[in-house]
Design brief:
There is one protein chain. The protein is of the alpha/beta class and 283 residues long. It is 38% helix and 17% strand. The protein has helices at 3-14, 22-37, 50-56, 68-78, 116-129, 143-150, 173-188, 230-235, 246-258, 268-271, and strands spanning 90-96, 112-114, 133-137, 162-166, 192-198, 212-216, 220-224, 238-244, 262-264. The protein has a 9-stranded mixed beta sheet, sandwiched between helices. α6 (143-150) links the parallel β3 (133-137) and β4. α1 packs antiparallel against α3, α1 (3-14) crosses α4 (68-78) and α6 (143-150) runs parallel beside α7 (173-188). The radius of gyration is 21 Å and the shape is elongated.
Length: 283
């Protein structure tokens, strides 16, 4: 069942008596949130009406599901179906801010998920949902940021055979070490990693790769401001969108065509083959 189909099914359920469905929406949202936190594929049906339980039995839990019950409920109250969800290019907006802000900056739009946990969860899920290829464009890295992504790795998680990283010509040791920690992790779980950096410009110097993008199989992607770093995931004020469909294909094609202007980077891992992720991720 697609997000649009789930939205329509919930709309039809709530439209019967929309004024009496607030508790159902709250319980369903809490159940989805709990399933995401527990990395479960299905929700706990306790306390939910049988019709909702049967409906959700065919829906895999994913971050985008969290907003749909509220969207359907509010649409039922207004007696208006949001046709945007029938052509869902935009999956969700993901944002992060300092923990001190959370709960103090409300948003009324259901597709907003303004907390660092949802951003980390989405990016990790995107990485491990790719079956053929993963393209990551990111200028700044940190070991702590990679550690936070790694928290969401499931024991049975698989990665695509090919991962391409497009990044800046790194001169910052902190960022170098973060990138190498990511490469070590990806190599250990069986992926072949290629790191590309821009060629020198005709007039001298190098362009800064400032985009922050992650694309899985040319089908789903994150496009935003957050680096793969602790600041990007937790301390800074960041925002990004999760997209799918033809928009992703166009975005991926643009970066693939740009690879003519890039060269392969020989990372520290290439000259120190004994290096493993345990060298970065000490308990």
């Amino acid at each position: 069942m697609t997000p649009g189909e789930l939205y329509k099914a919930l709309y039809n359920y709530f439209a019967v008596t929309p004024a009496k469905q607030l508790q159902v929406v709250r319980r369903l949202t809490a159940a989805i949130d709990a399933a995401l936190a527990a990395d479960a594929s299905r929700i706990n049906p306790a306390g939910l009406p049988e019709a909702i339980v049967l409906l959700m039995a065919s829906v895999p839990v994913q971050p985008s599901s969290l907003s749909i019950p509220w969207q359907a409920y509010r649409s039922a109250q207004a007696r208006y179906i949001d046709k945007w969800l029938y052509t869902p290019q935009l999956d969700v907006i993901l944002a992060t801010a300092p923990p001190d802000y959370q709960g103090a900056v409300p948003t009324s739009w259901n597709k907003m998920q303004p907390n660092s946990g949802s951003l980390l969860s989405y990016l990790s899920g995107l990485m491990f949902s790719a079956q053929r290829r993963l393209l990551i464009i990111n200028p700044y890295w940190s070991v702590e940021g990679v550690k936070k992504l790694r928290i969401f790795q499931r024991a049975d998680a698989m990665l695509p055979p090919q991962i391409t990283i497009m990044t800046s010509v790194l001169s910052n040791e902190h960022s170098n070490r973060g990138l190498d920690s990511f490469i070590a992790w990806m190599t250990e779980v069986g992926a072949e990693v290629t790191v590309l950096v821009p060629k020198e410009l005709n007039g001298g110097g190098y362009p800064l790769v400032h985009a922050k993008v992650m694309i899985a199989d040319g089908e789903r992607a994150y496009l935003g401001s957050a680096n793969i770093s602790e600041n990007g995931f937790q301390h800074s004020i960041e925002a990004g969108v999760a997209i799918q469909g033809s928009a992703v294909k166009g975005l991926e094609e643009w970066f693939i065509n740009m690879q003519n202007y890039f060269v392969a980077l020989v990372s520290k891992l290439a000259v120190m083959p004994g290096l493993r992720s345990k060298d970065f991720f000490q308990s």
